[in-house]
Structures are given as structure tokens and as C-alpha cells.
């Protein structure tokens, strides 16, 4: 699914530059940790990344396919050989296993079938594979419609509202919308809600194509046949559409899970399918209606029109079956030597729409290399104090399904044991490092980046990352990948990061050949990310006190509430602010500062018993849970975090303080008093937990 940082960052904060530090370690432990980290950096085998990536991407491997099972088995064997305990977690998911059959054809004023698959390119052997499928959108409805055409720009909520304002009725029409601005599933949702008979989604050259630069195979931008695949599943929760809040355990297993009837879900009923801009041009070029409003013009060489009138008829047919499909998560564990019941979890999905070289398997390959490097440490008697779990999720591309089901299955254990979840979906997709994270993990990430050299420079990752700024910028987590369940459903501090760059996102061209030619010909970025992630993981696993940056809660919350207050005042001039929250934040800021002082004193001057450490850390694990609210969000109570959520109208953007952000999107003041109380209560709960920690540190 979409991993590019532009889609998971709404806005970001510069982290204040600080001296290098190993937060959470007793003074007498820091020398040993430095030795372990130095050994780890030397242990990373720079050749393994390329080997793993090439093996993982030998074949297209969609969730539920035989090729994906081969990838699963390869990953399991690599981790077993590294000394990890490997477990498979099977689920039976209700989903579209393959494209089925589909067609798009012009009917009038001319009759012409339109291309639905990438061109076979001379010199690109990957593009000629018989295992590649035509463009498709999983969870499309099935149907065969012939109708007039309406162009809806990006198909956002605002775009459909604009069409109404302009007097353009989409009822009974086939909507043509371009990729971008929101999750493709919401394009389908809004089209269906407005009465459309079908939806076609295309990549416009203004967004990725010849207007940007050279197209593939000469360059990195979409050629006229490149097609972005992807799921259009949009429920009020994340995961299998038939088992909200419960894991979709195997139908033939001992534990039976009650499943919804498919007709009682929100799965789409209209046919939906994607095309490239070469095919879209043949439709748009025949349209003769009103000229589009400002901002709706794309990159094709003619004036875009809102509709084609009754002279332009298009046929859209999709016959896509849904059924139960067995998928598997693969989880390898290195058991902690001292605190085995405290977990550091790292993950990336492994299913892809095609070869998946950048998305997702650049991240998969990196994690396999990390499994081997950490395994070597453990065999040398330098194993982590806390358990490290490395997870490879299945069926993410169909709707972040595998990880969501695992979170639902393991919810109680995660509440008690999970220190952090670190996500690396497409984690080595270029040369520009970036990340988004919950407040408590931002500092430890920044510090880890100071320990790793950036390839072919005399600088660290930290120095390249921050560039000309005083410090790196770290964003806030939104939607689109496997951190959703951990962070937004059960409240595990989470991070999503890696390197970004050129991509032919979800097309048949995202192959090892594309990666080798355009993304990183040196194959040094994968090992670099492995080194950084390894240092980060080791610090989270080995620090006596979990190295959360507790002070960061107050810093970030103040900024979020300033933004939220301004958002409310933009439509309600009488709004006076969140008074209860303001009072609670003053207390939180003061208590968090006292906690940091107390912790620093203890770490520098004291020794703690194993029982004292366990007691303190059990309370540290509870901090993020302060924002988990049983009532959840009004747009979907599966989303329990008051702190962060995916934007329910775009599917990708980060919504901080989502309860309030939803009211802002509705331009409603009706529930602001309720949210002031709920947020104040959560902040007071957090403050109380920190006070208890201070008392334990005395």
C-alpha cells in the first residue's frame, strides 16, 4: 500500500538538536552497549540485501497466490537459519484473489477496446512475464454497464461536491477520476454514494508522466501504459471485511469466529478498474462538455471537460469474484535474555501487486538481512535483553489485513508486552531518508541516526537527513500501512520510516530491473537502513528503562491543540478554546519535566534491581494507552486512539487529535465540549501515570 512519506505526513516538527545520548541506560551499561552496537555494525553483510531482494522479486506474488507462498517459505527459512523461532499465523480472508475478467471499450462515437495492461518493453525481460496481470482494483464490485462519462478530477469528497455545485449529475454515469489526493477506495465510495454506475481510475501525466520528465524505460515516470493497481476496500475499521474486532482465524480451525454476511458490509457494488493515461486520453479527448474548473486540468495536451454528453458512451465490465483466501503472517522471534515478555516488533508486508521491488520488498529484504545480523549477535552471546519480533505481513495490499488480524488476535499480549512497533513498508525505496513516529520514539530514532554512516559520503545519516536544517524533521503517522492496528487500535508507540525515491507505484514495472537501474544501483542503501534500524532496535531492546521521550508528549500535544483550536475558529468565531485541555497540559508539562530529571538522576547515580526495572517498565508500557478510548471515533469506533488516526476522508493523511479533526471536517461545534472533556481526561490519566513513575524513581 501507499508508503511514500508524502502520504503519511501531514506536518512535521524539527527535533531539537541534542548531544548524542543513550537514553534509558544505566551509566555502567553504556560502555557495553557501545561495544554491542559497534559489533553489530561490523556484522551487517552488505551483499545479502541484494541477494534477498532479487530472490523475493523473482515472480509477481499477489496475496493468496502460489508465488506468494514461495516468498513466505523463503522468508521463514532465512529466519530459521538465523536462529529465530518462526511461527506462521494463518487467516481466512474474504477477498478478491485475482482480477477476474474486465474490459473497457468506447461504444460511441467510435467503437474501440482500450488497453488495460502495461506494454511489453524491449530490453525489459520482466515486462514480458506471462504471470503479470492486467490492471485491477481488488474489492471492486461486479457489473456490466454502458453509460455516459463524467470527469471528477481526483474523486475527493470536495470534487464530488464541486460537481454538484456545477450542476453535473453523476447518477447512472461512469466516473473517470485520476489517482492522487486520497485513497482510491474513497474515490469508489464517493462515486457510489453519488449514484455512479461505475468508476475508472487513471494516472494522469501531470502527476506521474511525461510532464514530469522522462518516462519508463528511459526514466522513472509513468509511461502511457503504466497502471496503478490497488484495493478499494473502505470499511469503518481496518482488516478483513467480515470480522471487525475479531481475527479472521481459519474456517477449519478449532476456534470459530462469527463472520458477517457479505451483504451486510460496505464493500462496493459498482465496477471499478484502473487504466494508464494512454487509454484515459482516448476517453478524455472525446469529451465535449463544460470546461473543467481551475485546478482540474491534467497533463494531457487538450482542454479537459466535465462530461462527454450523450454522444460519448463507454462500456465498463468487471466480473471479480470474492471468496475466502488463506493468507499467512510470518513472525520470527529472538527471545530476550532478561525481559523476554517485553517485545520490540518490526514489520513489513510481503505481498505485492506485481514483482514489488520497491513496494514492499525493499523493506522485506532489509528485515531479512537484519534477522541474520541480529541472529549472529545472539549466537555470539550478545542477544537482546528484550525479545525482538520481526514480522512479515500478508494481504496488506488488499487493505492492511494481515497485520490488523494479528493485532486483533494478539491484543491482550500486545497490551501487556509491546514496547514499540517499527514499520518498514517499502523501507528502501530510494536515497532520501525520512520517518514519521509517535512522540515517544522520535528522539531515540534521531540518536540512532547519528551512529550510521551514509554511503559514499563522509557524513552520518543524521547529517544527510537534516540537510541545511537545524535538525531532522519527523512527521506524524497517518494511514496506508501496517502501523494502523498497533498505533490506532491498541496504542503501541509506532514508527514508519526508510528511504524514498523514484517509484512506479503498484505497476507491473516495479521490478528488480527497475530497482537496479533507477532506485539504488549500488545496493548500499539497504544495508545502511539495516544498520540504522538495528541500532534503534538494540537501544529499545537493551536499555534498562525503555527509552521513551516522555517530555515529547506535552511538546507535541501543545502544537496539535494550537492547530486544532485554529481549525475550529476558522468556522466558529465564538469558540474560546479547549479550557480543560489547556489546564491539563500545564500539569503534564510540569510532571513530564520532573520525570525526566528524576530518571536522569537515577540512571547516572544509581543501580536498579531487576524487579525495580520490570516494575518501572510495566508502567512505561501503559503511557500510550492513556489515549486509547473505549468509545473510539464517531466515524468508526475500531479507531480507539484519541491521539492519532488515518483521515477517514482521504485514507492516507495523518489526523492528529482525530476526534476534534472530525468535527472540524464537518464544521460542527456540537461535540467540542465533549471532546474537551475526553481529551482532558486522557491527558490527566497520562499525567497520573507519570507521577506514579516519579514515585518509583525516588
Automatic annotation (TrEMBL):
One Pfam family recorded for the sequence: TFR_dimer
Domain annotation Transferrin receptor-like dimerisation: ranges: 582-689
InterPro entries for the chain: PA_dom_sf, PA_domain, Peptidase_M28, Peptidase_M28B, TFR-like_dimer_dom, TFR-like_dimer_dom_sf
UniProt key word Isomerase: no
Record carries keyword Amino-acid biosynthesis: no
Keywords: Signal
All copies of domain PA, residue ranges: 145-211
Domain Peptidase M28: 329-512
Gene3D superfamilies in the cross-refs: 3.50.30.30, Transferrin receptor-like, dimerisation domain (1.20.930.40), Zn peptidases (3.40.630.10)
Signal peptide bounds: 1-19
Family per record: Belongs to the peptidase M28 family. M28B subfamily.
The protein, known as: M28 family peptidase
Organism (species): Sediminicola luteus
Amino acid at each position: 500500500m501507499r508508503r511514500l512519506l508524502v502520504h503519511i505526513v501531514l506536518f512535521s516538527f524539527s527535533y531539537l538538536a541534542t548531544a548524542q545520548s543513550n537514553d534509558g541506560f544505566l551509566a555502567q551499561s553504556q560502555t557495553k552497549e557501545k561495544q554491542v552496537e559497534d559489533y553489530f555494525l561490523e556484522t551487517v553483510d552488505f551483499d545479502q540485501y541484494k541477494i534477498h531482494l532479487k530472490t523475493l522479486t523473482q515472480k509477481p506474488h499477489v496475496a493468496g497466490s502460489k508465488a506468494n507462498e514461495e516468498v513466505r517459505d523463503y522468508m521463514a527459512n532465512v529466519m530459521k537459519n538465523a536462529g529465530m523461532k518462526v511461527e506462521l499465523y494463518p487467516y481466512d480472508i474474504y477477498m478478491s484473489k485475482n482480477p477476474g475478467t474486465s474490459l473497457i471499450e468506447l461504444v460511441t462515437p467510435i467503437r474501440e477496446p482500450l488497453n488495460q495492461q502495461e506494454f511489453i518493453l524491449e530490453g525489459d525481460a520482466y515486462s514480458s512475464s506471462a504471470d503479470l496481470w492486467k490492471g485491477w482494483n481488488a474489492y471492486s464490485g461486479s457489473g456490466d454497464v454502458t453509460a455516459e462519462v463524467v470527469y471528477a478530477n481526483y474523486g475527493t469528497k470536495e470534487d464530488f461536491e464541486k460537481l454538484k455545485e456545477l450542476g453535473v449529475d453523476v447518477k447512472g454515469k461512469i466516473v473517470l477520476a485520476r489517482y492522487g489526493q486520497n485513497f482510491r477506495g474513497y474515490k469508489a465510495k464517493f462515486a457510489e454514494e453519488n449514484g455512479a454506475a461505475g468508476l475508472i481510475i487513471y494516472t494522469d501525466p501531470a502527476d506521474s508522466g511525461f510532464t514530469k520528465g522522462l518516462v519508463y524505460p528511459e526514466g522513472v515516470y509513468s509511461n502511457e501504459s503504466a497502471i496503478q493497481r490497488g484495493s478499494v476496500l473502505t470499511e469503518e475499521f481496518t482488516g478483513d471485511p467480515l470480522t471487525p474486532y475479531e481475527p479472521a482465524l481459519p474456517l477449519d480451525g478449532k476456534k470459530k469466529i462469527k463472520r458477517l454476511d457479505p451483504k451486510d458490509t460496505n464493500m462496493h457494488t459498482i465496477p471499478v478498474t484502473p487504466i494508464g493515461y494512454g487509454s484515459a486520453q482516448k476517453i478524455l479527448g472525446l469529451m465535449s462538455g463544460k470546461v473543467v474548473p481551475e485546478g482540474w486540468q491534467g497533463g494531457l495536451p487538450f482542454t479537459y471537460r466535465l462530461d462527454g454528453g450523450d454522444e460519448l458512451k463507454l462500456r465498463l465490465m468487471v466480473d471479480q469474484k470474492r471468496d475466502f483466501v488463506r493468507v499467512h503472517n510470518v513472525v520470527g522471534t529472538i527471545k530476550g535474555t532478561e525481559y523476554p515478555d517485553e517485545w520490540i516488533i518490526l514489520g513489513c508486508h510481503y505481498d505485492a501487486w506485481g514483482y514489488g521491488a520497491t513496494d514492499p520488498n525493499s523493506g522485506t529484504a532489509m528485515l531479512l538481512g537484519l534477522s541474520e545480523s541480529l541472529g549472529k549477535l545472539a549466537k555470539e552471546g550478545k542477544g537482546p535483553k528484550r525479545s525482538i519480533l520481526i514480522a512479515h505481513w500478508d494481504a496488506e495490499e488488499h487493505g492492511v489485513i494481515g497485520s490488523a488480524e494479528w493485532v486483533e488476535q494478539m491484543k491482550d499480549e500486545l497490551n501487556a508486552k509491546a514496547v514499540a512497533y517499527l514499520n518498514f513498508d517499502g523501507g528502501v525505496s530510494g536515497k532520501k531518508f525520512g520517518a514519521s513516529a509517535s512522540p515517544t520514539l522520535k528522539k531515540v530514532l534521531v540518536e540512532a541516526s547519528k551512529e550510521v554512516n551514509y554511503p559514499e559520503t563522509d557524513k552520518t545519516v543524521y547529517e544527510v537527513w537534516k540537510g541545511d536544517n537545524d535538525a531532522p524533521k519527523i512527521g506524524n503517522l497517518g494511514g496506508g500501512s501496517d502501523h494502523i492496528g498497533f498505533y490506532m487500535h491498541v496504542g503501541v508507540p509506532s514508527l514508519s520510516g526508510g528511504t524514498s525515491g523514484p517509484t512506479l507505484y503498484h505497476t507491473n514495472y516495479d521490478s528488480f530491473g527497475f530497482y537496479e537501474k533507477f532506485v539504488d544501483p549500488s545496493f548500499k542503501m539497504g544495508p545502511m537502513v539495516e544498520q540504522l534500524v538495528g541500532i534503534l532496535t538494540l537501544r529499545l531492546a537493551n536499555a534498562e528503562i525503555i527509552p521513551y521521550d516522555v517530555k515529547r508528549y506535552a511538546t507535541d500535544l501543545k502544537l496539535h491543540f494550537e492547530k486544532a483550536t485554529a481549525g475550529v475558529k476558522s468556522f466558529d468565531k465564538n469558540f474560546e478554546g479547549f479550557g480543560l485541555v489547556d489546564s491539563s497540559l500545564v500539569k503534564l508539562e510540569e510532571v513530564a519535566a520532573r520525570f525526566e530529571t528524576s530518571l536522569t538522576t537515577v540512571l547516572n547515580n544509581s543501580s536498579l534491581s531487576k524487579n525495580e526495572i520490570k516494575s518501572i517498565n510495566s508502567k512505561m508500557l501503559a503511557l500510550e494507552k492513556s489515549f486509547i478510548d473505549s468509545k473510539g471515533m464517531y466515524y468508526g469506533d475500531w479507531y480507539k486512539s484519541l491521539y492519532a488516526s488515518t483521515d477517514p476522508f482521504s485514507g492516507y493523511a495523518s489526523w492528529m487529535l482525530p476526534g476534534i479533526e472530525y468535527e472540524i471536517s464537518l464544521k460542527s461545534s456540537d461535540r467540542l465540549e465533549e471532546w474537551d472533556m475526553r481529551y482532558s481526561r486522557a491527558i490527566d490519566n497520562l499525567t497520573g501515570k507519570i507521577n506514579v513513575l516519579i514515585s518509583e524513581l525516588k
